[in-house]
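debug: dumping io for the single-chain case to check the tokenizer round-trip. Nothing else runs in this session.
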Amino acid sequence: MNSFVLRPCAKINLGLEVLQKRPDGFHDIRSIFIGIDLHDIMEVTAAAVLDVDCIPPVTDLPTDNLVSRACRLYAETFPNENRAAKITVHKRIPTGGGLGGGSSDAAAALVAMAMVNGHSLNDSLLRRLQPLTLQLGSDVPFFLHPRVALVEGRGERITPLPFTFPWIILLVCPGLHINTAHAYSTLGIAGGKPGSNLVDKLRNAIDIQEIKQDDFTNDFERSVFLQHPVLADIKRTLIDNHAIYASMSGSGSTMFGLYTSVENATMAQSAFTSMDTYICHPVQAPFLRP
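debug: decoded output
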């Protein structure tokens, strides 16, 4: 394909347990990732020379962003595929908010490079690209095929879950940029700890149509809330406005509440007039399609 559009989507974390620091400097996690329909827009046209533009910019130099890095990695890995691309990313996912927008764009960039070089977007292509994703970031593997999944290890162990996520998601974005590496450094994790059975908890929550607030915990909240008390305030406001569950996504700073209807989420949205808010739904896989 010579010209097409991809829609890299965001995600939230339902529970995020940091289990231990690994010898390679990364951390083992256990989390349920849920792809949501808030997405960037990636315009792609085949070209002789790579040209990447993010609107608005996410790095000082365009060559430093994850989309550029993903494209260069693809070209280095498959040197016989010599078509490049003009890629323009219209950013709609807030950056530095724990929603995985940069990682999602990186996954989409790998797909874009494959498609301009004549490959069809199918399961075979996704398997071909999978080994490249972890070189770009721990969340990138998930975004080749976003859905509801248990994510473990660094992010490379992905188990799709046969659940239809039934709740509406209200995102509240206070505009704080949380550095993920710094957030990990504040956790104070010395040794390993066992994780909880997030899959059984989600299965039970869907069965009874109710989530208990202490069933799913985000380990980053403890340290990040101390640095940014406004996030704890947002969480309390979401619960006060009838969210059946509220939490932080990733290492923050986006907070989210789960609601039983769009109407309830819309009423809660009015409590956050000074912040960016989005009402979202779980993605219907496959989502990353031209």
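debug: round-trip ok. The first helix runs from residue 66 to 77.
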